[in-house]
Amino acid sequence: MVDACDVLVIGGGPAGLATAIGLRARTDLTVVVAEDRTSPTERFGETLTPGALAALDRLGLADAFRADGHLSCPGGISVWGGPRPGHSDHLLDPRGPAWHLDRRRFETRLRARAAQVGVDVRTGTRVVTTGQESGRTTVGLRGPAGRSTTLRPTWVVDASGGGSWFARRQGAVRHTRDRLVAVLRLADLEAGTFTAQTAVEATPTGWWYGSKLPGSRIVTALVADRGAAADLLRGGGRRWHEELAATTLLGPLLARVRLRGEPLRCRPVTVSRLDRVTGSGWLAVGDAASERDPITGCGIHDALLDAADAAWTIAAATGAGGQPPWRYEDRVEARFENHRQTRDALYAAERRWPAEAFWAARVPRPVAAT
Ligand SMILES: Cc1cc2nc3c(=O)[nH]c(=O)nc-3n(C[C@H](O)[C@H](O)[C@H](O)COP(=O)(O)OP(=O)(O)OC[C@H]3O[C@@H](n4cnc5c(N)ncnc54)[C@H](O)[C@@H]3O)c2cc1C
Predict the structure, then answer these.
(1) Quick one: 231 and 160 in the same domain?
(2) How many domains does the chain have?
(3) Residue 364: pLDDT band by 50, 70, 90 thresholds?
(4) In contact, 115 and 121? CB cutoff 8 Å
(5) Torsion on CA atoms 358, 363, 369, 370, rounded to nearest 10
(6) Are residues 51 and 117 in the same domain?
(7) Domain housing 17
């Protein structure tokens, strides 16, 4: 049996859930979110920039967010481009502080809000097929216990993350600007205090960050090239720990605390985007449209902005709202371009190790036309 729905959102991460909530705030459309994971899992991506609270406010979530125990982050401390620490703070930022997220709690809150505004959130449900039937898109879902359903949505929102599950099947192509890897460790803070600032430090191998998380947790990560990361992981990650201990900012900060650490984990970090983020009856949001370098800490923020623009675009296309004064694809492109420029400027500002492979490979280069 084929069920009709107005909008199917593939992926219940921040981008997908925010699009669904935004759509229900603007329209009476029936919105289904299909999310593979049964419940939110611990994930990396834990700093929320100050502007994101305004986006959450528009989803009716600012008060709940403030009550959810995320830690406010007053700013950053960095050793970048020179040996002396520099500071950036949000003290005078009218948008308020940044936040260290409990990512699981954050996504649980988004799911609850989506259900509250009438979104049909189907968890443990993977989108597995797509096709055409009488000129309409059909999408096959595999739910809990392997139950299969077919939907015939008027609109599909691809919010499936960097895999762009739906967009790639519509012929969109992913252009990758950079591939890195993050080698991360989560740890419980057993004794001592760690700064509330996000600490960032460039080294010849790449760059490190460390930040406090809710629940007396600390995340420490090295973002590096894949080959270098593999070397550091050998022998149980001994060299990762040695390089961390030798850093001039993070090493001393961590020497003051006692941690109970978990094993090191690796996550790919890709800077990439689709060659087109919309097509007939579909659009892509968040990482599915474009993935960012975590150095700028704006992946979730920009995903929330994509979501707001996507909701307006679909509302207008279905006659449920006025036409926005911009094109969706231009907005996504402008945000990615802004990220690219910020990222290039950051990497260009670190000139201490021009012969090191990591830095030599990241001398800013012209943007390839897509
Ligand atoms: C190491 C690292 C550190 C980062 N640090 C930060 C940070 O500090 N701050 C920040 O803002 N951002 C950070 N990011 C980026 C941030 O995590 C992402 O930008 C953000 O998660 C994007 O949200 P999204 O909803 O687009 O995608 P995702 O969060 O990836 O959600 C996609 C969802 O789609 C689901 N899905 C995929 N395929 C299917 C399918 N076929 N059917 C059903 N469901 C499917 C997945 O289960 C997933 O839940 C970091 C990323 C990395 C890798």
Answers:
(1) no
(2) 2
(3) confident
(4) yes
(5) 30
(6) yes
(7) 2-69+101-175+270-343
- The strand order across the sheet containing 71-73 reads 47-48, 98-100, 71-73
C-alpha 127/C-alpha 289 separation (Å) is 18
For ligand 1, atom 19, name the residue with the nearest CA.
299
> 258 and 280: one domain?
no
pLDDT higher than threshold 50 for residue 370 = no
Average pLDDT over residues 58-65: 96
Asked whether residue 88 is domain-assigned, the answer is no
More confident residue, 80 or 135: 80
Structure-token pair, residue 58: 């528009």
Ligand 1 pocket, CB under 6 A: 10-16, 34-37, 44-47, 126-127, 159-161, 163, 165, 182, 267, 269, 286-288, 294, 297-301, 303
Q: 274 pLDDT exceeds 70? A: yes
Ligand 1 centroid from CA 353, angstroms? 32
User: Which protein residue has the closest C-alpha to ligand 1 atom 30?
Assistant: 161
Residue to probe by mutation, ligand 1, list 10, 156, 170, 287, most atoms within 8 Å of CB: 287
pLDDT of 170-215, one tens digit each? 999 999 999 999 999 999 999 999 999 999 999 999 999 999 999 9
Do 289 and 231 belong to one domain? no
Three-state secondary structure string covering 65-102? HHHCCCEEECEEEEECCCCCCEEEECCCCCCCCEEECC
Single-letter amino acid code for the residue at 335 = R
Tell me the CA–centroid distance for residue 287 and ligand 1, in Å.
Answer: 6
Q: Do 212 and 290 belong together in one domain?
A: no
CA 226 to centroid of ligand 1, rounded, Å: 20
Residue 86 lies in a domain: no
Residues 121 and 15 grouped into a single domain: yes
Q: How far is C-alpha 29 from the geometric centre of its chain's CA atoms?
A: 26
Q: How far apart are CA 12 and CA 19, in angstroms?
A: 10
Tell me whether strands 31-35 and 120-123 are parallel, antiparallel or unpaired: parallel
**Residue 336's CATH number:** 3.50.50.60
- The enclosing domain of 229 has a CATH number of 3.30.9.100
Same-domain check for residues 13 and 113: yes
Residues 18 and 136 in one domain: yes
DSSP-derived secondary structure letter, 323: P
Domain for residue 92, yes or no? Answer: no
